[in-house]
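Colleagues,

Please find the record for the two-part complex below.
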Amino acid sequence: MENNSTLSFEERWRLKSSKIGMIMIGFIIVLMFGPIIYLKLAYGVFPTWDVALTAWGTIAAAFGVYYFVEPLSYYPILGITGTYMAFTAGSISDIRMPASSVAQETTGVKFGSPEGSVISTIGVAGSLITTLSVVFITAIAGTSIVGFLPDSILVALKSYTIPAVFGATYVLFCKFSPKLSFIIIVSTVLYLLISGVNYGLYMIVCVVVSVIIARALYKKGILGDNSSGGKRDESSEG
Amino acid sequence: MSNVNAIDVANSPAIWVLAGVCVLVVVVQTALFLRLAYRTARSGEVKITSQQCSTALRAGIVSAIGPALGVFVVMIGLISILGGPMAWLRLSVIGGASTELAAATVGVEAAGGDIMSGSLTMEQLSTAWWTMAINACGWLVVTFIFASRMEKLRNKIGGGDSMWMEFFSSAATLGIFGAFCSEYIVEGVKGVDIKTILACVIGGVAMLGILTLAKRFPRLKEYAMGLAMVIGIVVATIFPAIS
């Protein structure tokens, strides 16, 4: 609204955030190699370059698509600050995205609005406090803690945490527009059943197709009407 | 070199310090973004109360507890292979636990070793570390280059229509999580793995129930993610007992 006199909120937020993010990520990229350089300097150990490049090539072939797909796909919810934090800290789908959405849902701000950006930032930062603490404690004392836990609990945590979180996150977004959510889950399941293709491009196709469906429905006025009603009767994955 | 024990080097104080410096940058970045958000909220540029700020912070902290325990489990495995400090560094920076395990395996194998053998040579250790670091760089470099541009693009897509912006954000997210859930659902439909689809569906149903209850007890929303997760895991675990 007040665009001309100064920069818009979106623009100021973008500039401030990217200044922090780019400086910090720059540091991290360099510092990450510290231990490897230390091995070379102190012990003279580093793989020969053909081994190093082979390993790089292999791992990039496996994950290279994700380098691009993930930042793009998660961006709409995480926003700029969330993206910087999520992609330095990882665990994006299972921790950062749920944290961002729960924070926005709990405070009742609009997803994608300026308020949403600020609240999402706080939510993601909160989740990082937890992760960094847990990971730190585990690094120090992990091996001794694990002895206290029965195997059955470890197995259950390992196998079912992620599917349970994914299902819960999906439903969290359903209530915003049950109609759209229902259409999307049906189309992604059908797509996967028919194509049989797993992963890689599958994810970005689902994102793009969902946005296109949403746009089409929105233009026809099918979506706009029931958004304020907050009906959530149509359960999703039934 | 042959008389140096790789795992002892991997757990040496120097490596702890080097890993610590890197993790510290992640901590500083988090603090800076948190400060930016709180300042923006206080400045009155956006309509957010300090009450909402603390609610959001609590929600973020609590919702991460459950999944962080899952990270804990995988991390134990990484510690025994790569040493404490490197596991700490790797799971603090782009810490997809399974991704790191894959990268470590590729590295060790490229250096002619076997990660399950239990003891690595120095060169295998170095190659494993190198592979994990260079792999993480992929995401970091893309984020470094594109994050700011994507924000511009997003503002353009939104075009000032805040209602469409909300639909756009939700549709993209539904697309991703729809893709993830579909995998479990398809596996379940094909009869490959019933318990995983159960964890996924029950997680969703539990969330629905909690959100409905939260109309009466608003505080419940903050714990929704953790509660739904626990319910999903428990039901999936005890399933054969009741069928």
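Chain A touches chain B through 165 residues (CB under 8 Å).

Comments are welcome before we finalize the supplementary table.
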